[in-house]
What we know:
Elements: H1 9-20, H2 26-33, H3 37-47, H4 50-66
Helix pairs in contact: 1-3
Amino acid sequence: MAKQDDLDPAHVSAIIEMALSDHVPFASIEAEYGLSEKQVQTLMRAELKPGSYRAWRKRVRTFGTRRETYK
């Protein structure tokens, strides 16, 4: 399992881009980078502004309850 400290900035940027996308599930991020959903959330919290993080989490929660397979 990868840790945030082990990732180079290009990978961190790619993970953030994938996580912000509404079309990429956490399972895809885990398969490619070895980060669990919880680790992605921690990374996003550290890298995004607080308001941006809260908006992202709200969007993920909202879509998650509407669709069976989503982040």
